[in-house]
Amino acid sequence: MDVKLLAVVTALMVLTYAPPSQAKPLSLIERCYCRSTINTLPKAYIKELRFLHTPNCQFQVIAKLKSNKEVCLNPDIRWLQQYLKNAINKTYPLAAQYLSKWA
Q1: CA separation (Å) from 36 to 11, 20, 33, 57, 62?
Q2: How far is it, in rounded angstroms, from Cα 60 to Cα 37?
């Protein structure tokens, strides 16, 4: 009787064992990089731009300054909108023509 009980308990332990997960906790996955943005920044201060778009966050623009500091830019800044439009036109000229018909 004790052997049967031990076998059942062992089988239940094997079936319910969950190995440790390699995934990050949800609180880290869903965080947006840009919590606040700045509206004015001269283009001359910028060394490079990065663009992030994730399902949980709005479109984010990270500017690395010449001082190696990173700041988040408001994606609605006029010169940034023009920069993105020019980049799309250069990279995807046919798509840009198609999209301009819909705008």
Answers
A1: 52, 35, 9, 12, 11
A2: 9
* Domains of the chain as residue ranges with CATH: 3-16+42-101 (2.40.50.40)
Residue 32 sits at φ, ψ, to 5 deg, of -90, 145
The bridge status of strand 60-65 relative to strand 46-52 is: antiparallel
Q: What is the pTM of this model?
A: 0.58
Q: Give the pair of three-digit tokens for residue 48.
A: 């490079």
User: pLDDT per residue over 30-78, tens digit each?
Assistant: 678 888 899 988 889 999 999 988 888 888 999 999 999 999 999 999 9
